[in-house]
Amino acid sequence: MADYVKPQFFVFLIVLIPGILGGWLAANRGRNIAGWCILCAFFPIFLMVIYFHKPLKEVEGKFKRCSSCHEFIKWREDICKYCNAAQHPIGGG
Ligand SMILES: [Zn+2]
């Protein structure tokens, strides 16, 4: 009877969780999902690297470029944190 949890299961979780997190963070930044997924799974320190990485491109709902200085800022930010320029609402209007 399986009234205990196999140690392999914990190893699986330890690899899986950072892998999924890394892939998710990479997806938000328009980066290579599979590559970061594997990297973070085996080297969770790369979660910090991808977290502080700038996006490669605008990702809808996550990151956009400042209309003034073209730095990447969060999608919903009204004021650019780099140059304090007010952002135009997305979707025209
Ligand atoms: Zn700016």
Q: What would your notes on this structure say?
A:
With 93 residues, the chain is mainly α. The protein folds into two domains: 7-53, no CATH class; 56-93. The protein has helices spanning 7-28, 33-42, 46-52; strands at 63-65, 72-74. The protein has a two-stranded antiparallel ribbon with strand order 1-2. A hairpin with a 6-residue loop joins strand 1 and strand 2 (72-74). Helix 1 (7-28) packs parallel to helix 3 (46-52). The structure holds zinc ion. Zinc ion binds at residues 66, 68-69, 71, 80, 82-83, 85.
Q: What is the N-to-C succession of helices and strands? A: HHHEE
Helical content (DSSP H or I, runs of 4+):
40-55%
Beta percentage is 5-15%
Domains (count): 2
* Most strands sheet: 2 strands, antiparallel
Give Rg in angstroms: 18 Å
Count of helix runs:
3
Small-molecule binders: zinc ion
For the residues shown, what is the average pLDDT?
89
Structural class by helix and strand composition: mainly alpha
Low-confidence stretches: none
Shape, principal axes of CA atoms: elongated
**End-to-end separation:** 64 Å
